[in-house]
Specification:
Order of helices and strands: EEEEEEEEEEEEEEEEEEEEEEEEEEEEE
Shape: globular
Helix content: under 10%
Number of strands: 29
Strand order of the largest sheet: 4-5-6-7
Strand content: over 45%
Structural class: mainly beta
Largest sheet: 4 strands, antiparallel
Length: 412
């Protein structure tokens, strides 16, 4: 039997569940909340729309976002907590500022034995800050501990946390991947580091491994697979370098349904989404890529002069001409084989159906001027949050655009 629809945000599990999404932008201090319509019998669900826009106030703009349950946390010069239990009327709960919370670019929400926590990476202060987020609607947010190091953490750009004690960050200012010990929340410390040129983004991979994305405008960027021990010691296992990974590296995200695969986003070819297969960790390979530049597949029903995003490739699958991926910057991974992609230049959030990993399909696209400049996107436990864009003068929500499934018959 068909289950009632569930509302979610960017993350859409295969079972009914209520959720939320948040968006924040470095240019404008707003974020958008998305609603996703999903039915239990479907293996994947790509439909979603903009539900609401919420103004926030962060001097540095909104650069990163993550969520605990129905509360999203947006970071810039500080941390703002937003209650998104009602996606039609989200409310700002509180904002935490601190001298070490300057120029924050990323946040990881995690749970320790002592409560809900945030690890905030702040390039402006070269610091990682541990924040207590156990009672954002009651006691507010508070700084528990800080590790500040102008050498080891210079330009820190991303952060992830495993088992509430072990964190990894990228520090492109010193070209390193750094492991941190968070077991003593009041005194986090550096455990180890691994030199890696242009390291910018990190994600957990399968079986005690991480994947690190590094950009390079000359000769292509790369994704590197690194093994780590419980003590934080790291060892490079393998790497793939390719022109499709070139330009500024924006994000890397493990695909939950197949953890040996990772999606990477770079600014090569106008905006590139690349799927990297690290089944053989010593020799990762690119399985497929989707790019903004190039010509989309011809449409049988629409003259070529009228081709646009809504009919891009409905006559056959192609890696080229996906204009909704222009400026791809961030991912939100869902357990239903949907990977959501935020694109800053296009002002879009795209649901990519990766049921067929060799021919991923752009299943649904939302386009809105408020999403231009989108900076981050996240999904966690059936909930999702996106650090997304808005023009400060923009009001309301304008609309959405669909792109027809681009897989050949039976392909996706």
């Amino acid at each position: 039997t068909r289950s009632p629809p569930a509302r979610l945000v960017l993350s859409c599990p295969a079972f009914p569940m209520r959720g939320m999404t948040v968006v924040a932008s470095r240019r404008a201090l707003r974020f958008a909340v998305f609603a996703v319509l999903c039915f239990a019998p479907h293996p994947a669900c790509g439909d979603f729309t903009v539900a609401s826009i919420v103004p926030i106030s962060l001097a540095f703009g909104a650069h990163g976002v993550d969520a605990h349950d129905d509360v999203a946390y947006v970071v810039g010069d500080g941390v703002t907590a937003v209650d998104v239990a009602d996606v039609d009327a989200p409310t700002v709960l509180t904002t935490l500022t601190d001298p070490d919370l300057r120029g924050c670019t990323a946040v990881a929400a995690y749970t320790s034995s002592r409560g809900k926590r945030l690890a905030v990476a702040c390039a402006g202060s070269n610091a990682v800050v541990v924040v207590d987020a156990s009672a954002p609607n009651g006691g507010g947010l508070r700084v528990l501990g800080v590790i500040q190091d102008d050498t080891a953490l210079r330009g820190v750009s991303s952060v992830i946390v495993r088992d509430d004690t072990l964190a990894f960050v990228t520090a492109p200012g010193v070209q390193r991947v750094v492991s941190l010990d968070l077991s003593e929340e009041n005194a986090p410390r550096v455990l180890s580091f691994l030199a890696l040129s242009a390291a910018h983004a990190v994600t957990f991979a399968h079986d005690s491994h991480i994947a690190v994305g590094a950009g390079n405008s000359h000769g292509g960027g790369r994704v590197t697979v690194i093994k780590y021990t419980p003590s934080g010691v790291m060892m490079k296992v393998g790497s793939i370098k390719d022109g499709r990974l070139g330009g500024k590296f924006r994000a890397v995200q493990t695909f939950p349904a197949r953890e040996e695969f990772s999606f990477a986003a770079t600014l090569a070819n106008g905006g590139n989404v690349v799927l990297v297969n690290a089944t053989t960790r010593a020799v990762p390979v690119i399985t497929v890529h989707l790019q903004a530049q190039g010509r989309a597949a011809a449409s049988a029903s629409v003259p070529s002069s009228e081709e646009d995003e809504s009919d891009d490739g409905n006559a056959g699958w192609t890696p080229n001409g996906h204009r909704s991926l222009a400026g791809a910057v961030a991912f939100a991974a869902a357990a239903n084989r949907i990977m959501y992609v935020a694109s800053a230049e296009a002002g879009t959030v795209v649901g990519i159906d990766a049921t067929d990993l060799k021919k991923p399909v752009l299943a649904h696209i939302v386009t809105d001027p408020q999403l231009r400049g989108v900076s981050d996107l996240c999904a966690r436990g059936g909930r999702a949050a996106a650090a997304a864009a808005a023009k400060a003068s923009a009001a309301g929500v304008t609309g959405e655009s669909n792109e027809t499934n681009t897989a050949p018959s039976g392909g996706g």
